[in-house]
Amino acid sequence: MAAPDIVMYEEEFNQIKGIISKLRTDANAKVVFLVDKNGQQIAAHGDIENLDTTSLASLTAGNVAATDGLARLIGEKEFSILFHEGEKDNIHISIVAQRVILVVIFDERSSLGLVRLRVKKASQELGDVFGRIMSKVEREKAAAGAAFESPFAEITDEDIDSLFSE
Amino acid sequence: MTFINYASREINCKIVYYGPGLCGKTTNLQYIYDKTNPNAKGKLISLATETDRTLFFDFLPLELGTVRGFRTRFHLYTVPGQVFYDASRKLILKGVDGVIFVADSQVERMDANVESVENLQANLKTQGYDMNTIPFVLQLNKRDLPNVAPVDEMKQLLMRRDQPVFEAVASKGPGVFETLKGVAKLVLQELTKSS
Fold this sequence. Notes:
Chain A is 48% helix and 20% strand. Chain A is an alpha+beta fold.
């Protein structure tokens, strides 16, 4: 496999939720959410009731992937910040710890400068949390060694078949 | 790269439909979208040209139910089939958990099928995957057309290993869910081995 699976634990999940909720308040943003580079939503906070966050996550990741491709074509490693300006709402996208995408949606109640400032601080904190998650995964795998028992080891063919029985 | 969230008890997997232009990848997704219970699906997103050719990808999130207390979510993607969109195809393969190769059964499309399967093999490799180990199924689509190649011949041309093969007519439905189920099974089986 190209990269290890992402595993999210309760403790770190709560820390992440805390950081993005604080970021939303500090930056005066409407929505803050975190997406994995493959398009899986990790956490979201704010006015998300009327927002299709699943689609947003997948399109953001597509957008970042395409922009990464552009960066490499002109000899850059990545463009770490993307900004889309709309009539009312704007989207600020940044890469955290080279693997997750932090998205902030804001309107005229905030400003690009404020968002950039607050995102910078939150990115560092998020980077630390993801560092801890990765080392935790490594540690658990190493500790368990070859006998590492996944909670999914017990999945049977019947379990899978029942997913499709409608 | 499966994303397992212990906090919300979810498993998220990414499935990619690959194949030559006009083989029916988007049609597969469209059929799944049309036939799925509204509670179990999200929006079908198509980034397509004005003539409905896929430009970047189509995306459909599906929720299949729970396995061992975990909700399983499948994110289905298609790639643009046209040869010159190769850069986009590479991007979409990032983090893939399972691949469905959709082959066009019409005799005159055999060269395009072979070219595309070779392209898949190369692009998987650049993303660090091995076609021999990744969950992978083959769908022979458009079996209802008059000028189709025999199944055995297509298998010989397109099989790269002993993967499951499904015959389908994506526009009408036969084989569509069987194919998806086939790859989902392999992806979940992979979880039992490696996570």
